[in-house]
Amino acid sequence: MQKRFTPRMLAAALAAAALAAFASTASAQPTYRIEALDGGNCGASRINDRGWVAGNCDSTAVVWKDGVRTSLGRLDKGTYSSAADINSFGVAVGDGDEGDGRPQAWMSSRSGLVNIFPNSGNAHALFIGDNGFMGGYYTKSLSGRTSSWHGAIWTVDPRDPRKIRKTDLPLIAGAAIDSNTAASIPFAFNQLGQAAGYQLGDVIGQHAVFWNGDPSHTIVDLGVFPGDWSSLAYGINDLGQVVGESHPPFGSRAVLWDSDPAHTPHELPPLPGDNYTRALSINNLGQVLGTSAYDEPGTWNVGPDRNVLWEQGVAYDLQTLLDPVSGAGWQVTAPAGINNLGQIVGNGLLDGQPRVFVMTPM
Question: For every residue of 11-37, which 3-state class applies, written as one string?
Fold first, then answer.
């Protein structure tokens, strides 16, 4: 019989693995081999721990499994679709329209794409866990009203696989006096059902938030880095560490909120000569992807971004980590995600032509 891990067992195993990885990791600059995936007019969204990639080609959702590209098609009458994530069993999620241009959340199946939240005004599925739950956000409104946005978790009804249940993620109590200003959007989920994103409200403004994986999905205000005025969270790993950005006046600093009870924030350093950073994703080894740039003090004149990998608190320019042989002719333009093996997927230019890439640690 296959052993099933409880969330507590999984968290303990992940913590032990992360400690072992850190203990065995040398302090030398990492090096990556880069390779192109099949397809010219394509974009990548996520890479799972099997090295499978979710994305789109020619406005249609695709996945790459072991380098082989497969089209997932579109929803009925759809004009576009894009895959946002793929789990270790090969089930993908994403969004696409049904002919009217409005995004609808879907999951893949043997018979095609399934709309998991029909008749919504706008819905996005961002994550699918290995146990099948899906995470994202939606609005039923077509007016664009701020308060209409909600984070959600969708699960297939075990008693009737044709039905999909939706659970809304809660808001912070007291974060808004005027309900029209209250909204929350999660940008990332993990295998334990935890999530990270942001909440709006006329009391707190805009704050990064964390949702627990308990049955109530209790919400935690991550606040801002001391002295700052707003924050956003973009990534979360299976240890409950969250990354994002906090905003001082006319600026942005990359922040890692730790998984301790206080969710202690740590600022991630910029590349030399820069002062404006953003952290976008984090894996179970604590490796963080993001950007670094120079912001003219007292202005919003932000220079070109450089892509960054933070490893053990050290910032590396991602372009400089390519090995000279496989990296010849490559320009890394838009990393999209990093898996728990340290593989990075994204979009770049090979000899000036757009290509999807996978970077693998050497």
Answer: HHHHHHHHHHHHHHCCCCCCCEEEEEC
Pairing relationship of beta strands 122-128 and 134-139 according to DSSP bridges: antiparallel
Q: Which tokens belong to 96?
A: 């696409």
CA 82 – CA 95 distance, rounded (Å): 6
**Bridge partners (DSSP) listed for residue 62:** 55, 71
Q: Kindly report, residue by residue over 48-90, the tens digit of the pLDDT.
A: 999 999 999 999 999 999 999 999 999 999 999 999 999 999 9
Residue 351 CA: distances (Å) to CA of 43, 306, 328, 359: 17, 19, 9, 17
Q: Among 36-45, 144-153, 216-225, 230-239, which stretch is predicted with the lowest mean pLDDT?
A: 144-153
Q: Please give the single-letter amino acid code of residue 61.
A: A
Tell me the C-alpha distance between 278 and 255, whole Å.
8
What local confidence, expressed as pLDDT, does residue 172 receive? 94
